[in-house]
Amino acid sequence: MPQQAQTLPRIGFIGAGRVAKGLARGMAQAGQQVVAAASRSPQSAAQLAAMVAGCRAHARAQEVVDASDLVFITVPDDVIAAVCASVAWREGMAAVHCSGATEVATLESAAAAGAQIGGFHPLQLFADPEVALAGLPGCTIAIEAEAPLLPRLEQLAQALRCRSIRLPPGCRARYHAAAHYAAGFVITLLGQAVELWQSFGVGREDTMRALLPLLRGTVASVERSGLVQSLAGTYSRGDIGTLEKHLADLERAGPEALHLYCELALRSIPLGLERGGYDEQRAEEMRALLLRARGS
What we know:
Elements: H1 2-7, E1 10-14, H2 18-29, E2 33-38, H3 42-51, E3 56-58, H4 61-67, E4 70-73, H5 80-85, E5 94-97, H6 108-112, E6 116-122, H7 129-135, E7 140-145, H8 149-159, E8 163-166, H9 172-180, H10 184-198, H11 204-225, H12 227-230, H13 234-237, H14 240-253, H15 255-275, H16 280-294
Parallel strand pairs: 1-2, 1-4, 2-3, 4-5, 5-6, 7-8
Antiparallel strand pairs: 6-7
Helix pairs in contact: 2-7, 10-11, 14-15, 14-16, 15-16
């Protein structure tokens, strides 16, 4: 066991926010060597270090680089390049950011010094560090790097009990935008449902109690049966009568609610067709109703 531990890279974090705390604790629990952390907030670095045995809080980012073989830059996207350029990297070590949308080329100052560079983005919400830590096993990590760093990062993802996918250069913003549909935008849609239910007197708490089981059931169905077979309701069966009722009532609710509904409904029709719930003629009738209601 001691011999195996010696072969593990020394891992450091520059930036000690929610992502760093979640990942550092997960890595430590997976038997990795998390040895250093620094942050513009000394208190945040001290908090991270206190969570991980053998990790030391440092006052300067350069001290993390000097103490580590693999450094995760977990700072806001707009300062990744500046933070990377502010330290002196060693040849053969690795600089990795955890941003979903920022290109790996942002770390070019580290590459110019001979360091390997990469991206390591967990598809996980880190709003609550405890929830994020519990949900880390089984989540997917999007990795972008070249050999020999690529297999090292994939092995790290495996140690965290995560799946991994490889991202080619130049696609990170599109990948990250698409992920919003399964995370942040779901919350936005629930917010829209809350507004509509409040309009007829049901409060936020009661709305969420009613809709969360529905959401959980939907996710479980998708996991079990896939996207197409899990589509249910109006757009799985081509129910024009219900569609007309929806449009008439949402028109009274206001243009914003109506337009959002139309956009989502139009994108549901191809899934309904693929599911075999109706034919192209019925699909065209639904599209015509939706486009007319949307004002196009």
